[in-house]
Amino acid sequence: MGVSVCKITVGNVCEGTGFVLFKRYVLTNAHLFNKDMYNNSVRPHITAMFNYEPPHHKKTLNFKVSNTFIDYDGELDYAVLELVVSEEDESLVPPGLMKHCCPTPESGEACIIGHPNGEVKRFDPACIIEKENREFKAEEYLERFKDNEWAFTSVLDHIQKQGIKRILSPPDPIDKQAASYHTFMFHGSSGSPVLDAHCRVFGLHSRGFTYDVPTKGSVIEYARSVLFICHMFVKKLKTSEKTSDQTLLKAVEKELKDNEYRELILNQN
Question: What is the CATH number of the domain that holds 218?
């Protein structure tokens, strides 16, 4: 599954992670991009690098990324990008993971594959925190600062400003399908796929509620539901009158033909 994961570089602005969704289309986080930059005449050079792994692995594979978003949703924090590749060379693009997407598990094992700090690809096994336990786990984490009132207050204030209450129990409606966990995958890992114990993709690793005083860390991290993202993507394609979007819709339907959850993506209200 990891061969489909890539390092995303947005000019000299930031780095993140993405993965092939289907054909030459890559899924990543919307927050990697300032959407306003696409209204300017000068646009950053965006690239996707595959096989960026330790030296004994095969040669890296680099693609330019189109400056035009195929889809962009700031609230759900996802963006679908198109690799600039000819039809003849499309076979070089690693296989898409949409065919392996599934609902978000309530609990159990998970694995995140990404490029933390823009470094080589890494894997991090994690355990999903049940929704009803998120608040307890966050409070448990903050216990490490109990003997330092200044540090406790600083960290708490910082994560509250980031909106941590949205994922705590009960979570905000838009975050009900999110999965939370603890991982070392911080900066640079945004857009990583999160797999369940059966190697199915359920999450798009989005962010952690981080702090940098008194040290650097993250209280809790979470992933958006890939199944729901795919559903919203399909919903937009269905309502579009563009011929290109209808072609994409047919490609998505073909990609999902063997996925047992295809109806949840294609026909869910």
Answer: 2.40.10.10
